[in-house]
Automatic annotation (TrEMBL):
Protein's UniProt keywords contain Signal: yes
Keyword annotations of the record: Signal, TPR repeat
Start and stop residues of the TPR repeats: 142-175, 262-295
Signal peptide: 1-22
Database matches in InterPro entries: CHAT_dom (IPR024983), TPR-like_helical_dom_sf (IPR011990), TPR_rpt (IPR019734)
Organism per entry: Beggiatoa leptomitoformis
SUPFAM superfamilies: TPR-like
Every CHAT domain range: 480-747
Organism lineage string: Bacteria, Pseudomonadati, Pseudomonadota, Gammaproteobacteria, Thiotrichales
Name the UniProt record assigns to this protein: CHAT domain-containing protein
Amino acid sequence: MCRFLYILLLSFGFWTNSYALAEDWQENGQTAFQAGQFEEAVQQWELALSALLQEKQTLAAIDTALQLNYAYQALGLYQTANDTLHKVLDLAKQSNDAERYALVLNQLGMLYLANREISQASELVTESVNLARPLNNPALLAELLNNLGNVFALQQDYLHALEIYQESALLAERSGDNLLLANVLNNQIQLYIEQKNFNDAQVLFEKALKINASLPDNYDKAFNLITLGQLAQSSNERLLAYQRYTEALTLANKLSNNRISAYAQGYMGELYVQEARYSEAEQLFNQAIFLAQKQSAPDLLYYWQWQKARLLKRQGRTEEAIAIYQQAIETVQPIRAALNSGYRTHSEASRQSVRLMYFELADLLLQKADTTTDEKPHTAYLTHARDTVELLKAAELQDYFQDDCVTNAKTNITESKPLTSRTAILYPIVLPERLVLLVTLPNSLKQTTVDVTEARLGEEVNNFRTNLVTRTNRRFFVQAQQLYDWLIRPIEANLQAANIDTIVVVPDGILRTIPLAPLFDGKQFLIERYALATTPGINLTDPKQINWQKPNVLLNGLSKSVQDFSPLPNVPEEINKLKQVLSTDQVLEDDAFLLGSLSDKLKNTPYSVIHIASHGQFDADPQKTFLLTFDGKLTIDRLEQLMRLSQWRKEPVELLTLSACQTAVGDDRAALGLAGIAIKAGARSALASLWFVDDRATADLMVTFYQQLQSGKMSRAKALQYAQQKLLKQGASQHPAYWAAFLLIGSWL
């Protein structure tokens, strides 16, 4: 309450000594930060920054913003750190203080790196180093070079990273900054370990130990001991790791620091698991969990809950393990975005590890279902497994688009089952040693296990995708039959018994990168037997029948070569035919297809169908995902904003069609972006292509698809099936490269 009173008084100018107060807040923040009390440091420094900006104390404000940035990063709040630095970026640039400006640029670069924007990070960090080199400040240059080494390391440019780290270490040693030197040495050790250079890693490890011993007993020293323990553990040096964790725990107790204690005891628990000393490991995990709860540290809490669940699973205590896995998932849900950031924590590895936790729980539930003969608990285990996978699907979309609101419109289809009588939902769950096919039928839920490893499946999928887009050969048939045998043949009897005619696929991982339409049973393609749709998560889908009574349709097309993209000469024919089929004169074509014009159209009319015939690129980085307009690139965020513009819109866009998209072979994150396009853009369904298709074949398919929808006799999935079958029957377009790329995403009705 007092802090809020101080802010209020400051805002009305009642305090004449606000600068003195700011100094107190700065000092309090520094004390809290050094003790590892980052939340308290943030509170104190925010008060100081507000006062300093108000008093126009520019240099002190820049210093405080930099400190706040470090505290927010320690808490995993990278976007807040970024916002804080941008408050003082212009001040730093105008201050004529090159040292502070270099520090601000450097830290902004590291925040770009945490957000996986490596090119921007490299540019800013390099600029900061260039600014610092003439300043004759070895400590500053050492810090900036250490971060430049981190950039090179994440780019896997290990040679340059090592050179930069070595220069940084020399400068840190020359300036007498032992804490910085310890951090640089830790980075070098990690680099050597990643390169399997354990001899050089050991030499530096001994040096780092001596440097760390010279540091005062504080949080930084304790955290360095944890880091050294992890480095030793990753080199399978268990005794060295145990010694470092023990030292860290002793120091943590002296400092009364629960966070370090939780780290130390949890990692010691991992060592005991490796030694098969399970009882002692469980006690240590329990203590780490208790301390993480006491510290309100969910980033630690979920991890130690997860490790305890793994231990219980290893001991065959399945029901207990399931309960703890569930607790870990509930803990991690609100903090996934923060876990996926961080430049030395390898965000991709973090993302994959969190994903692994969901699948370990699903795996355990599926195993339990497999050994349960009573129908009611058997179905309950299968349902729990499916719901766990659904939860992961929503999390993956939120993480890809970096938008927690992207999955707000959940429908709980898996609970209420509003499926048409002839629709099946297929979940291929890819586990390390096997593939599980979970199939929701109108009146039942079935599980089938396929004996194929994740690695073997991935190899076959990548070969299939490569051969599919090569029109000059038919080598794809080999993989098409093998994948059919793994993904469809095991559930054929169930599909036939339920008289299924439409399959909705919820693909996982690498399976997102291929269509199932060209799978081959030896006589027919799958599309000849079933209508197909895909969705990133069934509970993220709103399956309602499309209403084609006088739909509002907006056609957009770009046939000209702009921004170094090739022309699409058949787009005018596609647009002209669709104008006739759909009876619309609402068209933006070529130099009329401008970002501003599209914005005006969508703002004033609640279109139910939006068709875009232009180049589209989906990338693992959503910031590099776009649709091409005549005057620029339409990002997915911008598309979402435009489609939600209409003040008259009560229902979502029924159909968004993107007829010239492409994703890279084997890039399942790019394919995730494509799969999530309908949800992100606020459309009930989307029709898009996995790879660029001959634009004449595209035009023919689109016209047929819309004609069938216009008739009012077919679902969206059936209309696409009809259009693909029509191309398949034509001699010039029989190869799947012409018709298989198109996916119906979202509502299939």
